[in-house]
Structure formats: structure tokens, C-alpha cells
Design a protein that fits this description.
The chain has one domain (5-135, 167-291): Alpha-Beta Complex (Spore Coat Polysaccharide Biosynthesis Protein SpsA, Chain A), CATH 3.90.550. It is 36% helix and 17% strand. It has helices at 16-28, 47-53, 55-60, 73-79, 98-101, 122-126, 145-148, 175-178, 183-192, 201-209, 251-254, 260-267, 269-291, and strands at residues 5-11, 36-42, 63-68, 108-112, 116-118, 135-139, 166-174, 214-216, 223-224, 237-239. Helix 1 (16-28) packs parallel to helix 2 and helix 12 crosses helix 13. The relative contact order is 0.14.
């Protein structure tokens, strides 16, 4: 029997459909479907959406493990003072607690953002050589702009633009080594320096914590800003960080996201259109609240 492949996702109930799509894309791109164990760090999920997510079990025989972080005192304490926004809710910080939340006998895991599409056997990434370091990631295509800020000056006292800077949307984690690092204490030290309101959420924090102790992985394992121009490059994992998300109705027609039509059918038409209605309802509710 093959060893399990552990994959971690973090999301809330407004992102259930993209989370399902990431998992289904992983399953469709490997023959080792029954070896897949998805660890879902989540805020409260409706019964209907949980049933949708469990579709990867019914269709492929993969395993789901549920981690309701809203019930976690550790998570509440950790994120209490961390910055958040409508675009970046506090669930994004769950990845930083992966070593605390997952069982201690798991030695390696892949973390994936939910705005991704996997197109290559995930076991090739899971088994990649980390060269003795606790973390493997891909250099961010937008660095050093993100790290150093506008005109490469705003955050030069925090990040040197000559240093490599990774995108945190895909992480290969050696959990044994990660557990030897007191990430919670290191984040507290960063906060103590008064830097929190100048950081790009969890990504900057992780780059500070793992400065000099991460392994750069090939670019195709995290194609940032995945646009149609990237399609001929045959990327292994597409990362939709642009505003034109592939789950938008017009993305395929207007060619705003790589493989947008493929993405829709990985999500399945049923969930794609239900997710569109879900987003419209949220938009109207927000609009009505603001108009009062």
C-alpha cells in the first residue's frame, strides 16, 4: 500500500466551491487518488456545502479530515491581534498553525490556497527534495515589489529586495522541522517590533519567519497571476491571484484567467452556477446594508 499524501486547505463557507475545485483538480491529475488525505482547516460550513466537498470522497475515494478552527482556542488566541480584511479573513492564518492542528505523526504536508488549479501529479511535489530545510516554496513572480513596497523603498527596513521572497499559496512543509520552530513566538516578536500594519498578511510573516531556511522550488509548481498567456507554459499548479477569477461568469469569454473553461468543468457546472448565485446574494446583502 502506498503512503498517504497529505494536503492542507484553509477556507470559510464563502469559498467552499473553489476549495472543492482544488481538491477535484488534484484527484483528476493523479492515479493515486485513494492515497490523498485532505486536511480541511475551516470556519463553519453549511450542511449543503459540506456535502459538496465530500464529493471527492464519493467520486475518487480520497479522504477528508475536518478541522473546525472556529472551535479552536489556539486559533482564536493566535489570530486575535493579527490584521484582517474582507479580502483576507483571519482563516488565512490557519496555515501558520498547520503543525499544531495536524496529528503529530504526520511528517510532511502540502498547503494549497483555494484559488488554485492543479494539473500535474501531486505526488511529484509531495516527494520533492527540500534539501534539509523545513519549507519548500516558489519565488513570488511579483517580488520584490510585494516585499519592498512601492518604488522598492517602503519596506526596505523589513525586507532586502535582493533576498529571495516566496509566495505562500503553495507550501511543501517538513512538519518535523516546522514543529521545532516556535512560530507563535516569532510572530509575537514581529508584532513587538510594531510591524504588523506594514506587512502583507501571512505571506510577509512567513517570509520573515523562514528567512534563509526555505528551499526554492521550480516555478511551475505555483504559477502566480495565472493568465491565458501562461497556458503554453504548461504549469503544474495555476494560482489565480488576478482579479479576474476563473469562477467569474465572464472569465472564460473575456480570456481573463488561464484555463477558465477547464476550471469551470473541474468545478462542475452545477456547483459553478450555484457558487455564482451564492456570490450574487452576498453582493446584494452587502449593497443593501450599505444603502441603509
Amino acid at each position: 500500500m502506498s503512503a498517504p499524501i497529505h494536503i492542507v486547505l484553509a477556507f470559510d463557507d464563502n469559498f467552499w466551491a473553489p476549495a472543492y475545485t482544488v481538491m477535484r483538480s488534484v484527484c483528476l491529475s493523479t492515479h493515486r487518488r485513494k492515497d490523498l488525505v485532505f486536511h480541511l482547516l475551516h470556519m463553519p460550513i453549511s450542511d449543503e456545502h459540506r456535502y459538496d466537498l465530500e464529493g471527492v470522497v464519493r467520486e475518487f475515494g480520497a479522504t477528508l479530515k475536518w478541522y473546525p478552527v472556529a472551535d479552536s482556542a489556539l486559533f482564536d488566541f493566535f489570530v486575535a491581534e493579527l490584521p484582517a480584511s474582507a479580502q483576507w479573513p483571519k482563516i488565512v492564518y490557519a496555515r501558520m498553525l498547520v503543525a499544531d492542528l495536524l496529528p503529530s505523526d504526520i511528517e510532511r504536508a502540502i498547503y494549497l490556497d483555494c484559488d488554485m488549479l492543479v494539473r500535474a501529479p501531486i505526488e511529484n511535489l509531495f516527494e520533492i527534495d527540500l534539501e534539509g530545510r523545513p519549507l519548500g516554496a516558489v519565488r513570488d513572480a511579483l517580488a520584490p515589489f510585494i516585499a519592498a513596497g512601492k518604488e522598492m523603498r517602503q519596506k526596505r527596513d523589513i525586507f532586502d529586495p535582493a533576498d529571495p521572497y516566496f509566495n505562500s499559496g503553495m507550501l511543501v512543509i517538513d512538519l518535523t522541522q516546522w514543529r521545532s520552530i516556535n512560530i507563535k513566538a516569532e510572530i509575537a516578536a514581529i508584532a513587538g517590533r510594531g510591524l504588523m500594519d506594514r506587512l502583507y498578511f501571512d505571506q510577509d510573516m512567513l517570509n520573515l519567519v523562514f528567512h534563509g531556511r526555505w528551499t526554492p522550488l521550480p516555478w511551475f509548481w505555483n504559477v502566480v497571476d495565472a493568465h491565458p498567456v501562461h497556458e503554453p507554459l504548461d504549469g503544474a499548479i495555476l494560482h489565480y491571484t488576478l482579479k479576474g477569477k476563473p469562477w467569474f461568469l465572464l472569465s472564460g469569454i473575456l480570456r481573463r484567467a488561464a484555463y477558465a473553461r477547464w476550471y469551470r468543468h473541474v468545478m462542475t457546472n452545477d456547483i459553478f452556477y450555484r457558487f455564482a448565485r451564492h456570490r450574487w446574494k452576498r453582493w446584494w446583502k452587502k449593497t443593501l446594508r450599505l444603502s441603509r
